[in-house]
Design a protein that fits this description.
The structure holds 2 protein chains of 2 kinds. By secondary structure, chain A is an all-alpha fold. Chain A contains 11 helices and no strands. Chain B has one domain: MetI-like fold (Orthogonal Bundle), CATH 1.10.3720.10. Classes of the chains: A mainly alpha, B mainly alpha.
């Protein structure tokens, strides 16, 4: 697996992996866009308070989340192909399947984000004459973005990992399918293990930074929440930048005692 | 209409149905094995990542972190392939294979794919358990130490019971994900449910008596698969929701006290 010869072969045939990577990125981008649109629409449906819309969104989410992506992709591709559209490309089917599947997860993320904004915000907006769309666009959605970004990025990582959903149908050109075709090829089967590891490294190089970013944002959000819950410690001006806030949180966790004594001494100073 | 009737004929074919339900059984058994071993291995990983933080033990921590991050950030399908080409497999007696109605090659494929699924699931489990461990208040440790408990005793009697209670809903959701993940095995063998459905879509004309595959075959077979997957997973997700509700009421009750 770790022979220099097989790695030399991989670098010689780098074009196969590059094309696979390009297709995977294409699937990710298009799938993400479809999922984002579906997610926003269904997320708004489920928080709209109108029963028929809520039921539509609920059924969609339950149905999609409780069946495997591979089954949906398989169904989509074969149903369209056998219905007579012989030119339906697996790549396009994969993009649609990914969009539909992750749309359900995105809509749950949006729902949780919108529900996290206090109801008074939209009531205040309506009282100022905002319409539903205006209050969503100017008041609610901007406040949800910070909450939904970390789970959203995690979902994107899952989406990237799921791009192999058309492998069963065959003909798809995503990175894993390309690697697999390379690994079972007559002249290249010797390099199979190295090829899989190589494509694993590519996936890791894309997904690891994304999950690190998501984890960092989540931690920062949590720290900010905790700080908000203890008003005594919140001696920061409101227009503080994120970097400054991080520094303050760091100081607070280390120098809790110091700030506590400072507060006590100032109170004590008043008594004296 | 006759096409549809021919496709529906498949559903009344006893042999075909028992073929499918054996697939469902394999799906469930594979998922249970992955969950159980993944839970044990994941617990070890989570404990090492959280508590081996000082001195030379840190090497163990870094190994656990590397394992978790590598498996969380690469696709499951890739691990199935890697295990397929490079994981050693014991030779399986023919009698064992016949007992579960598979060929010896299929049993070897099954073994390798279960290994891949276990490796992958344990990394996810580790993160879930770590989340549970972090949710337990630090004061619990201090209180335990002050009563003369050792570290292991605090973990066993005080921290782990609270952790497990906290993570049960997430864990059940992970079972749903694992059941869905078993479908990736369909790419290398027709053992579990989706693989068998896929094979029957290919072989549909043998059972419908039609000259070619029809779109109605796809609808009938995929509809059956959807119905079965949905029933299993939706039942689990209803359980998750009732548990979450109960946890919330318990928390509210504590807060009221």
């Amino acid at each position: 697996m770790f022979k220099a010869e097989s790695w030399a072969a991989l670098f010689r045939d780098y074009r196969i992996f590059l094309n696979g990577l390009i297709a995977t990125v294409q699937m990710t981008l298009v799938g993400f866009s479809i999922a984002l649109i579906l997610g926003i629409i269904l997320g708004l449906f489920s928080t709209s308070g109108k029963k028929p819309l809520r039921i539509i969104s609920r059924i969609y989410v339950e149905f999609i989340q409780n069946t495997p992506l591979m089954l949906q992709a398989l169904f989509l591709f074969y149903a369209v192909t056998f219905a007579g559209f012989r030119g339906f490309k697996p790549l396009v089917a994969g993009m649609l399947a990914l969009g539909i599947y992750h749309g359900a997860y995105f809509s749950e993320v949006f729902r949780a984000g919108i529900e996290a904004v206090p109801k008074g915000q939209s009531e205040a907006a309506y009282s100022q004459g905002f319409t539903y769309v205006q209050s969503m666009w100017y008041i609610i959605l901007p406040q949800t973005i910070k909450i939904i970004l970390p789970p959203m990025v995690n979902q994107v990582v899952n989406l990237i990992k799921n791009t192999s959903c058309m492998l069963l149908v065959g003909g798809a050109v995503d990175l894993i399918s390309a690697t697999n075709a390379y690994a079972v090829g007559l002249s290249t089967a010797r390099y199979a293990a190295a090829a899989y590891v190589f494509s694993g490294i590519i996936f890791f190089a894309i997904c690891f930074p994304l999950s690190r970013i998501a984890a960092r944002w989540e931690q920062r959000l949590k720290a900010r929440d905790q700080q908000g819950n203890i008003p005594k410690k919140k001696n920061a001006p409101d227009n503080v930048s994120d970097a400054e806030l991080d520094r303050m949180i760091g100081e607070n966790s280390d120098g809790e005692l110091a700030s506590g004594t400072r507060e006590n001494s100032s109170e004590g100073g008043g008594l004296e | 209409m006759t096409e549809l009737q021919a496709s529906l004929l498949m559903l009344s074919n006893g042999g075909l149905m028992s073929y499918f339900f054996k697939g469902v059984a394999f799906t469930i058994i594979i998922a249970i094995i992955a969950i159980v071993i993944g839970f044990v291995f994941g617990s070890v990983l989570a404990l090492v990542r959280n508590y081996c933080v000082s001195g030379p033990q840190r090497i163990l921590k870094w190994l656990a972190v590397a394992y978790i991050e590598v498996f969380r950030n690469t696709p499951l399908m890739l691990w199935i392939f890697i295990c397929l080409v490079s994981f050693p497999v014991p030779s399986i007696p023919v009698a064992w294979a016949e007992a579960i109605a598979l060929s010896t090659t299929e049993v070897q494929l099954l073994f390798k794919s279960i290994v891949a699924l276990v490796l992958f699931t344990s990394s996810v489990m580790a993160e879930i358990i770590r989340g549970g461990l972090n949710s337990v208040d630090k004061g619990q440790f201090e209180a335990g130490y002050s009563q003369g408990f050792t570290f292991v005793q605090v973990l066993l009697y005080i921290v782990l019971p609270q952790t497990i209670r906290a993570i049960v809903p997430t864990m059940l959701s992970q079972i749903i994900t694992t059941i869905k993940d078993t479908s990736y095995i369909a790419n290398i063998a027709y053992i579990e449910f989706l693989g068998r459905v896929f094979r029957m879509i290919q072989l549909a004309p043998m059972y419908t008596g039609q000259p070619t595959q029809n779109v109605s075959d796809v609808f009938v077979l995929c509809g059956l698969a959807c119905a079965i997957y949905f029933t299993i997973n939706f039942a689990i997700s209803l359980l998750v929701r009732s548990l979450q509700k109960r946890q919330k009421t318990v928390r509210v009750a504590y807060a009221a006290e």
